[in-house]
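#lab-general

N.A. 3:47 PM
ok so I finally got the sequence cleaned up, no stray characters, all 135 residues accounted for. can someone with queue access submit it? mine expired

B.Y. 3:52 PM
send it over

N.A. 3:53 PM
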Amino acid sequence: MRFTYQAVERLPKQLAQGVLYHSEEFEVAALSCACGCGHRVMLLVPDSHQVFAQNGTPTVQPSISVCDAPCKSHYFVVGGNVEWLPAFSAAQASNVMRNQIARHVVHDDRQRPWINRLWIAIARAFARLRSALRI
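B.Y. 4:20 PM
back already:
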């Protein structure tokens, strides 16, 4: 499998096999899974991945892990070429997904204004206190 790079304003609904679509404006990229299963792989740029293009061929860093599809594929795209890594087990895929969600929660918390973070912290503290008093 070989990928080509296509800069787009918006990601198309149908993804062509072998094309990495990248919207710099919306900071996302998408491709159809390299294994051929047809799963739509979304990449958050620059939060979780970096996408580089040279002479129409993409490079994606770090590796792409397709944890939310039955194939559980794991690979790099370097200079348009796919470099395969061992597929994830169901347990590994679940762990990777949990870690990604946790990382995004922390990132989202940092994006909130400080006053919102303060109120959330106060609410959590009261909830813990309320739970402790019920014991």
